[in-house]
Amino acid sequence: xxxxxxxSSLEKKVKEWxxxxxxxxxxTPLKQAVKTQEEVTELINAIIDNxxxxxxxxxxxxxxxxxxxxxxxxxxxxxxxMSAYNVISKRKGKMINGxxxxxx
Length: 104
Fold this sequence. Notes:
two-stranded antiparallel sheet; mainly alpha
């Protein structure tokens, strides 16, 4: 099974799960964005604690919230990623204190 097929299959399952739980019908894009922010905070805490299991869980949860957000916005995650990559692939900058800072 190739990686693209696996991601598509899991993405479809996440969308079905969200539909079955009423998330797509009752949640709002703003509330979903807040949920993503909560999951990002969990990732930060897991990194601080150097807890690999929690890091894996948090990244997965972030992806779930992003897939649901994209569905709410009638967007495809793959298209959003392609759009972002098309911008960052041309971006120039430098590393400062362990973070890439883009040129203005």
